[in-house]
Design brief:
596 residues, mainly beta, eight-stranded antiparallel β-sheet, 4 helices, 7% helix, globular
């Protein structure tokens, strides 16, 4: 039972996710990709293992899933959305998913909008046990959809889901088990993630990410940042997008995409309305108080769940929950506050790794040029897998440069040429002369355009930012600092160490001190003032920063000591103490001279 609403006779109100459904809402195998010689006479034809997507459902199968969801969604009575039911033994939430008071818009104005359709007939002829529903979502990377956890948690999106992009119209049933997608593109879901602390009771931590089976051409919408407070100031104009209900009097979704302008509501006002149901800091309310009827109310409603609340071209909220029929007097629409969850979401966008399980893996090369893959188990590494010949290299770095969710490598030859080796077997020469760089790192997206960037520090100590463009090549470099030769090339970084949603880097000076450089989000000055992590790091002769090895959302670091023992330093999310106490991985790692 939810807490009594304050005021107005202390009426109790039922809240629920702003999704719509018909029943109670309740990695792949590895393959070897062979590449041709990156540089004849210098690099032998390399091969590296990368995650292979399971065979994707045929387009007809995806269309059938959508058709089933559409039919099921419109084939149930309104009462089924609010009647107590159970799924997998757990009490199901009462569903309340609309934009009431919105205006039509087009996909060209919101190209990042996605439709999430789910249908499971349970393998029976009886439609009473069918599970089918619709949610909204946002393209935040070519293969990533940000949505609400209540749209994902407990459901098998790989077997029963489909994501539709590129259209502002909902599908219509052709009557033959397929759907007219109105110019949209249906894509299968490969993986799903929801916040590990999501509560099915309170809807706290209500964020999730679906990884598509292939890239979409839709333009991504950037996430807001963890330190964004301006977007949440009361009165700030925000825009809601969705296909949800447009009236409180029936359950019909809007056939056409709609938008509505909603002012951000103060935490004080939202807490006064919802009491402890509203978790300040994790949630944000938007819109004027509902009037008690459609007239004068502008609100999210059923079917808008998972969709975006946008401020200044960035997603600041994910539609989460509201009240029954969405227009009860005094009610507000409630959204998950994206700034709070940026640190948890970002590793899921840049989580691509060699075996596709959402945990970063280690790549190692012997002096003889043999490459090996070590897949993370979350606390250690599994046995190595031979990845092929990588002779003639002096640098190897893992990064999903084109955000296709297949791991890429950037490698530098001993002759100074830098190559992009794509996860699909593509190969691009970036350029020569890279032996002038004492350090090459790919921390992540430093300039906010959605693509991972490269930072190179030359032997003179000048640091340069090379923006990624999603094609494996790099844009024109800009100078971002000098005096970095105090680190003698010992600079490493991939992912977010401090939990603010921005990539960071660490550097070891010649005295053995390790320093943290927090990302700022400013391409002209991507690093904040350095913070000392600690001393004694000169006991190590090799490091690898490959991202989130443990799967907890924080970037980690591995270090090899002079005796060949490898140690794991788990990220903590704290800028003042970014690493937990070291954990021994194992010995014998001095057989490698390159890590990436």
């Amino acid at each position: 039972m939810f807490p009594a609403r304050k005021g107005a006779g202390h009426r109790r109100r039922r809240r629920g996710p702003i999704a719509v459904g018909v029943a109670a809402l309740g990695g792949g195998t590895a393959a070897v990709l062979l590449m041709s010689s990156a540089h004849a006479g210098t690099v032998q034809p390399p091969a590296f293992r990368t995650a292979a997507h399971p065979k994707a459902p045929a387009s007809a199968a995806l269309s059938a899933r959508i058709a089933g969801a559409v039919k099921a969604d419109h084939g149930r009575s309104r009462a089924s959305l609010s009647a107590p039911t159970t799924t997998s033994g757990k009490a199901a939430t009462k569903v309340d998913p609309k934009i009431i008071g919105g205006t039509p818009t087009t996909i060209s104005t919101a190209p990042w909008m996605a439709q999430l359709w789910y249908y499971d007939d349970k393998g029976t002829a009886d439609t009473a046990d069918d599970v089918g529903f619709f949610c909204g979502g946002t393209v935040v990377s070519p293969t990533k959809i940000l949505t609400a956890a209540h749209c994902v948690h407990g459901f098998d999106w790989y077997d029963y889901g489909a994501v539709l992009t590129g259209t502002d119209q909902l599908p219509t049933d052709n009557g033959d088990g397929t759907s007219d997608l109105h110019g949209g593109t249906a894509t299968a879901v490969w993986r799903q993630w929801n916040h590990p602390s999501y509560s099915t009771v309170t809807y706290d931590n209500d964020v999730a990410v679906l990884t598509l089976d292939g890239s979409t051409t839709a333009t991504p919408l950037p996430l807001t940042t963890a330190d964004d407070s301006a977007s949440y100031v009361a009165g700030t104009n925000a825009t809601l997008y969705g296909w949800g209900r447009t009236t409180s009097t029936n359950e019909d979704l809007s056939q056409t995409l709609k938008k509505a302008s909603l002012p951000i509501t103060s935490n004080t006002a939202c807490s006064a309305e919802y009491g402890s149901d509203f978790v300040a800091g994790h949630m944000v309310c938007a819109g004027a108080p509902a009037t008690g009827s459609d007239a004068g109310t502008t609100s999210a409603c059923n079917g808008d769940s998972g969709g975006p609340l946008v401020v200044n071209g960035r997603i600041v909220g994910v539609v989460s929950w509201g009240v029954q029929d969405c227009v009860e007097e005094g009610a507000y629409s409630v959204f998950s506050r994206v700034s709070t969850f940026a640190g948890a979401i970002d590793p899921r966008l840049d989580d691509t790794n060699l075996n596709g399980d959402d945990k970063a893996d280690l790549f190692a090369v012997t002096p003889a040029g043999e490459g090996y893959e070590y897949d993370s188990t979350g606390s250690n590494f599994a046995g190595r897998a031979d990845a092929g010949a990588f002779q003639g290299l002096s640098v190897v770095r893992q990064a999903d440069m084109n955000r296709d969710d297949l791991q890429d490598l950037l490698v530098r030859t001993t002759g100074g040429q830098l190559y992009f080796l794509g996860g699909t077997g593509s190969q691009v020469l970036i350029g020569g002369g890279w032996n002038s760089m004492a350090s090459i790192v790919i921390p992540g997206d430093l300039n906010g355009d959605g693509w991972p960037d490269l930072v190179g520090t030359d032997t003179g100590g000048t640091s340069w930012l090379y923006p990624g463009n999603g094609k494996g090549t790099l844009g024109a470099r800009t100078k971002i600092g000098a005096g970095w030769n105090t680190y003698s090339g010992a600079i490493y970084g991939k992912g977010d160490l401090t939990g603010d949603g921005r990539p960071d880097a660490v550097a070891r000076d010649t005295s053995g001190n390790l320093w943290l450089y927090k990302g700022t989000g400013n391409a002209a000055a991507p690093w904040a003032a350095r913070i000392k992590v600690g001393g004694g790091w000169n006991t190590y002769n090799a490091f690898a920063a490959v991202g989130d090895i443990t799967g907890d959302g924080h970037a980690d670091l591995v270090a090899r000591d002079s005796g060949g023992t490898l140690w794991l330093y788990k990220g903590t999310g704290s800028a003042s103490a970014p690493y937990a106490a070291k954990v021994r991985i194992g010995s014998g790692w001095n057989v490698y001279n390159l890590f990436g």
